[in-house]
UniProtKB/TrEMBL annotation:
Ranges where the record places region Disordered: 124-144
UniProt name for this protein: Replication initiation protein
Pfam families: RepSA
Length: 467
């Protein structure tokens, strides 16, 4: 005789809610903060007017459709960040080795891995990776032990670890030029635009032709990725490639090689400037930092080397890794409203000073008012990854291919002895441009429901379907 007591109503609701949450997580494929939607989609054959497929959120167990948040930051959503990193790797790799519509001959085109840095706004504590078999170099060892006008030492004999919280902090906060830091960060996208223009001019000058003639012989294709340094300023890592006039499907003129490209990069980075108004009303001249690095990209390079030629897979993996990071390492939340909110969230004093300077700049100059929307990225207003039109595939094409692959039904071998009778394939109709999609969706919230709310949602959805 079974003496196990029947579960109570509260226990049943808890089990039902847990089942609903698990089902929602599976439908959102592990997204940490999905978007809840309600609505319907109807696929109609344009030729016959026949409804070939319908979908409604009311058919789901809890009455909601879950859309992934798509956030690239690993600290916000590991699942969507992992997917974004994979897409970025394919985008970068296809531009270096071909694939997904990019010809494999692109590996023969001159290409270089470029790093552009911000100038110095004041000495900061730094970490230098140890050389093979050696010790970590000292931070700023100096025998004369100088001091700044405020009496603070401008040397540091310590050997900082990579995760030392002191790395990136100024040796003297009063000497550090915070206004210049914020202005450079805000105008970095314009500096990059001017750099690409100067790069083409220097390439043309190096081979003794005009820029107009250069466009008939070669095209500069690139993709760039932004990385935040420990001091809160950005690095720009870029893959720059020389193509023929029609793009990656044609080789550049024989008179241009990787050496010409790298010389033009150094020349352009050293001469590009931008004059902008500062806090005191005077003009401030912005430029790239003195550290400009170029590494020729070739399939014959080692995959783990830090200097010299770089392997395409090494470059793609390195850049894709940094796309999943932002300013969370500085203790900043996703949204920052003021320096006080950043300090309350646990941001470092250096980062708080940067945000405070940005807020004062926005209050002083009308042109800088939009910087208040970029406090979480310390004043940087660009996208973490950008590319020229002809460099490679797009994120949109990669995501469209994933959606089609996920929705396609598994095909059987034509010679299989048993054939399954399937309905008309929606994807085939869509590809033939014969399907009209009528959709009506409304926003219902963010995130998963808690167990009690999920149980009630299932109960309501079942009642609605019963009616």
């Amino acid at each position: 005789m079974n003496t196990t007591p029947a579960p109570s109503r509260a226990e049943l609701l808890t089990m039902l809610g847990s089942l609903a949450v698990t089902d929602a997580e599976n439908r959102a494929r592990g997204c940490s903060n999905p978007i809840r939607l309600r609505g319907t989609s109807i696929h109609v054959d344009a030729a016959t007017g026949q409804v070939v497929h319908t979908y409604s959120s009311a058919d789901e167990r809890d009455g909601y459709t879950y859309a992934r948040c798509g956030d690239r930051r690993a600290a916000v959503c590991p699942s969507c960040s992992h997917e974004y990193k994979g897409d970025a790797w394919h985008l970068l790799m296809c531009g270096l080795s071909g694939g997904k519509g990019v010809p494999g001959t692109v590996t023969e085109h001159p290409a270089t891995f470029v790093t552009l840095t911000a100038p110095s706004f004041g000495p900061v504590h730094r970490y230098t990776p140890p050389r093979p078999g050696g010790r970590t170099p000292a931070c700023r060892a100096r025998r004369d032990r100088p001091v700044c006008p405020h009496g603070r030492p401008l040397s540091c004999p310590r050997r900082h670890d990579a995760d030392d919280p002191q790395v990136g902090q100024p040796l003297c906060g009063q000497c550090y030029d915070y206004p210049a830091h914020v202005l450079w960060q805000w105008h970095a996208p314009e500096l990059w635009r001017r750099f690409t223009i100067a790069l083409r001019r220097n390439l043309a000058r190096r081979v003794g032709i005009t820029v107009k003639t250069l466009t008939q012989l070669a095209r500069v294709s690139y993709t760039k990725v932004v990385e935040f340094q420990a001091r809160g300023a950005i690095h720009i890592h870029a893959v720059i490639r020389l193509d023929g006039p029609t793009g990656p499907d044609s080789p550049p003129a024989a008179l241009l090689d990787a050496s010409d490209l790298e010389h033009a990069v150094h020349a352009a980075a050293g001469h590009v400037t931008l004059d902008v108004p500062s806090l005191d009303g005077h003009a401030l001249r912005l430029r790239w930092g003195e550290q400009v690095d170029t590494r020729t990209i070739t399939t014959g390079a080692g995959r783990d080397t830090r200097t010299g030629p770089a392997h395409p897979e090494q470059v793609a993996a390195y850049l894709a890794k940094y796309l999943t990071k932002s300013t969370e390492d500085f203790g900043l939340p996703v949204r920052v409203r003021s320096a006080a909110s950043a300090a309350a969230a646990g941001a470092t004093p250096h980062v708080v000073r940067i945000i405070d300077t940005a807020a004062r700049l926005a209050a002083t100059h009308e042109d800088y008012r939009p910087i208040l929307r970029r406090l979480a990225t310390l004043g940087y207003r660009g996208h973490p990854i950008t590319k020229s039109r002809a460099y490679s595939v797009t994120f949109g094409s990669l995501r469209s291919a994933r959606r089609e692959w996920r929705h396609e039904r598994p095909a059987l071998d034509p010679d299989a002895p048993v054939r399954e009778v399937l309905d008309a394939d929606i994807n085939d109709l869509t590809h033939a441009h014969t399907v009209i999609v009528l959709s009506e969706w409304t926003y219902a919230g963010r995130g998963y429901l808690d167990n009690p709310s999920a149980a009630l949602a299932i109960h309501s959805a079942v009642q609605a379907r019963t009616r």
